[in-house]
Amino acid sequence: MHRPAPSSPPSPVQSLAAEADQLQAELTVLVQALAPWLLEIPGVGPLSAAPGAGPAGRMPAASAPRTAVAALAGTNPIPASSGQVTRHRLNRGGDRQLNRALHTIVLVRLRTDPDTRAYMARRTAQGKSRRDAKRCLPGSCSGCWSATTNPASKSSGQLDST
């Protein structure tokens, strides 16, 4: 006769994985309730959309330029020129969680989105290094969050042509 093995308690890894799955499901529901259009943008998942949907009370008015959203995220350019070299660096201020979400979105879009790859190719063809072109991407993607303040002006997730 074969006895069933006594059920062992779940390992700590299994418990944490189950808790992470439950929290992600809850976060997905919250993001879908607050800003469902963010999840339609290529490269944006519930974890990266949450910072954009969360600080909606702090977002600039819908009539504000998208540069205000970039300033909030800390992706607006700051002049950092020296001598004959004209260069801009990204702002180190702003909402660091939103900035990190934009960085994650940029990395995902560089791997999967043909529009983002074309943007990168266009910037490198203009003479920018790959690193400088990558610095421009979070500012271009910050337009995704402008839809948070005005769902009627829903962003398509397209990058600027500049």
The end-to-end span amounts to 75 Å
Stretches with pLDDT under 50, minimum 5 residues? none
Count of folded domains: 1
How can the largest sheet be summarized?
Answer: 2 strands, antiparallel
- Helix amount: 40-55%
Mean pLDDT: 77
Please give the order of strands in the largest beta sheet. Answer: 1-2
Along the chain, the helix and strand elements come as HHHEEHHH
Compute the number of helices: 6
Counting DSSP E segments of at least 2 residues, the number of strands comes to: 2
Mass-distribution shape: elongated
Find the structural class using helix and strand composition: mainly alpha
The portion of residues forming beta strands comes to under 5%
How big is the Rg?
20 Å
Structure report:
- This protein has 162 residues and is mainly α.
- It has one domain (36-153).
- It is 49% helix and 4% strand.
- It is built from 6 helices and 2 strands, in the order H-H-H-E-E-H-H-H.
- Strands 1-2 form a two-stranded antiparallel sheet.
- The longest helix is centred in the first third of the chain and has 23 residues, at 12-34.
- It is elongated and about 80 Å long.
- The termini are far apart.
Q: What order do the helices and strands come in, and which of them pair?
A:
Elements: H1 12-34, H2 46-53, H3 66-73, E1 77-79, E2 88-90, H4 96-112, H5 114-125, H6 130-141
Antiparallel strand pairs: 1-2
Helix pairs in contact: 1-2, 2-4, 4-5, 4-6, 5-6
In short:
By secondary structure, the chain is mostly helical.
Question: Main traits of this protein?
Answer:
162 residues; mainly alpha; two-stranded antiparallel sheet; 2 strands; 49% helix; 4% strand; elongated
